[in-house]
Design goal:
Helix content is 49%, strand content 9%. The protein is an alpha/beta fold. Helix 5 (88-101) packs parallel to helix 6 (132-142) and helix 8 packs across helix 9 (197-211).
């Protein structure tokens, strides 16, 4: 299921790249917001001979092997035999030379699309590479080539770029609007041929609210409704996705573990997330009391969670950055896997807290087949004592 092209945001990125002198967009967005999709679209738009996409997170191992994998997969001419590094520092320096001097056909500047660029910090454990990100940013800022950088770590990116030159332009990838969600779900409902406009619009707003506008979650709900067939609704789809074998269960587990492993204080951080899953927002004092730790140590833990964007502080009250991840923690961070009744209950509580104000229940006719009155149910929501 395709995600609609955010033409306005892509035009902004391209405009920064095409400015004179060109700027370097740094696209920030959480898990599942569409950063990789954006870069792949840019590569297709610019042409595979003029742009190279590099998934830094997947191939940042040692500086030597990273250099080898990047240059071997590059569409730009490079005589690897002439550049054989003897140390990790030499490999990193050669990488910088490659990013700076590579050229597209005709000798024109080329474009590098660096996905999850902050993963270059992996190299900082090697001798002579204590300031990898700083050195890389300095080199990119001085290069005639063009670059687009992305990362899921918003707080860290702002800190890294604090002293960078004005050539870097931070761009926060926007959440999907309700109209975008409606477009994504159109194939599930046969282009809404048999659905009233009000019901279609409410469906888009409802799914946007349930997913917080994250593209991966919207796609998951849309795909699952297609598989479920006639009479499918977003809450039933989300319930299936959050079950033990559901795709969103596995996706949330990946995002949860990935961010925690990039932070300090693994066990204590999990405990705070458990506390916030039970109730949010909470103040520092409230969290420290529930955690049975001092406010000072709790403040450190919270700062580490903020550093990897797992929690957000507003008016000194802390909550999950991603509400769907909070639902996952409530369900799956427990001694035993949740049963079907547990998943139904938690998903319904989650939906009741996020759905738009009540309107007439949408007639969710699947694939253009008109539903009977009995099938026009309220998305499976029941009263919970």
């Amino acid at each position: 299921m395709a995600v609609p092209q955010n033409t306005g945001f892509e035009r902004r990125v391209l405009g920064a790249m095409e400015a004179a002198p060109s700027r370097i967009p740094v696209v920030l967005g959480g898990c599942g917001t569409g950063r990789t999709t954006l870069l792949q679209r840019l590569r297709e738009r610019l042409g595979r001979g003029a742009a190279q996409y590099i998934d830094v997170e997947r191939c940042a191992t040692t500086p030597e092997r990273f250099l080898q994998s990047v240059t071997a997969a590059s569409p730009f001419p490079w005589r690897a035999a002439e550049h054989q590094p003897a140390t990790a520092r030499e490999a990193f320096d050669i990488l910088i030379v490659f990013l700076d001097t590579a050229r597209a056909p005709g000798g024109e500047p080329c474009t590098f699309l660096l996905d999850e660029v902050l993963e270059l910090r992996t190299f900082e454990s090697f001798p002579g590479l204590r300031h990898v990100l700083r050195d890389m940013l300095v080199a990119l800022a001085a290069s005639p080539n063009r670059f687009v950088l992305t990362t899921r770590y918003v707080a860290r990116a702002h800190r890294v770029l604090r002293d960078a030159t004005s050539r870097f332009e931070v761009m926060h990838l926007p959440s999907l609007a309700a109209s975008d969600v409606t477009e994504i779900l159109a194939p599930t409902f046969n282009g809404y041929e048999q659905m009233p406009t009000d019901d279609r619009d409410y469906l888009g707003r409802a799914v946007q609210a349930l997913t917080d506008g994250r593209a991966a979650y919207v796609r998951g709900i849309g795909d699952t409704m297609s598989q479920m067939g006639r009479g499918a609704d977003p809450i039933s789809a989300l319930t299936a996705l959050m079950s033990v074998d559901g795709a969103l269960n596995h996706w949330c587990q990946f995002c949860y573990e990935l961010r925690l492993h990039r932070a300090r204080g693994y066990g204590a951080l999990k405990a705070i997330l458990d506390v916030l899953a039970e109730e949010e927002p909470l103040t520092l004092t409230e969290i420290s009391h529930r955690l049975h730790r001092t406010p000072g140590s709790t403040k450190d833990y919270l700062s580490w969670l903020e550093d990897v964007d797992l929690v957000t502080s507003r008016q000194k009250r802390y909550s999950f950055t991603d509400p769907m991840l909070r639902l996952w923690v409530r369900l799956h961070c427990r001694p035993t896997p949740p049963g079907d009744e547990d998943v139904v209950r938690e998903v319904q509580l989650y939906a009741l807290g996020r759905l738009p104000s009540p309107e007439p229940a949408p007639a969710l006719a699947y694939a253009g087949v008109e539903a009977t009155p009995d099938e026009r149910k309220s998305w499976g929501i029941i009263e919970i004592d």
